[in-house]
From TrEMBL:
Coiled coil: none annotated. Residues 77-99 are annotated as: Disordered. It comes from Nonomuraea rubra. Pfam families: SMI1_KNR4 (PF09346). This is Knr4/Smi1-like domain-containing protein. Residues 31-148 form the Knr4/Smi1-like domain.
Amino acid sequence: MVGVNTDHASPGDLAALRAAFPGGGPPLGWDAVRAFEAGHGIVLPEPYRTFVAEICDGSYTGPPDFGLEPLAELPDDWGDDRPERVPAEPFPLTEPWVWEDDPRPEEEIEALLGPVYDHGSIVLGTDGCGMYWHLIVTGPHRGHIWNITGEGAAPFGAEFGHTTADPGFAGWVRHWAEGRPWYDA
C-alpha cells in the first residue's frame, strides 16, 4: 500500500486544493478544527486538516456530485435513525468488501456493517443512491478515501485498482477537478 502523508500538507497539494475550490465555503479556522478534534478524540489527516482550517469547509460544487460536506455535517440522505458516529474508533477495513456477495449469514454481516459506516471516518459527501465517500481518520487506512455503498466498500486510489488517481484527499480532489470519472482504470 502506498503511504499517504497524513502529518504534513505539501505545498503542491494545498495549491491544488485552493485551485479546485476557488469559491468554496469559508474555512473553519484552526480553533474550530482543534475543538472538533478534541471533541472526537482524533487528529484529522493532512491535507484535509489544513483544507478545512484554511481553505474551505464544504462546497456545493463537489466533489462528490452532491457537494463536499462541511466537517461536522452529514449528507441529507444519511438518515436520522443511524447510530452515533465514532471517528476515534478504528476504521475496520483494510481491503475491499462486497457484503452483497458475502456468504455469511445476514445477521453476522449486519453486525459488521455498523463500524464500516460509523467508525474511523469523516463523511465527505454522497454521489446519491447510498454512495458515500469517507475520509478515514483512524486505523491502518488513515488518510485514504473509501467509497461505501449499500453493496460494499472499496478504497480509492490507483494502488487499489479501478482508478488512475493518487490516493488520499488531495488525489481524490485532483482527480475530480480534472473531470475524470471516479473509476477510470
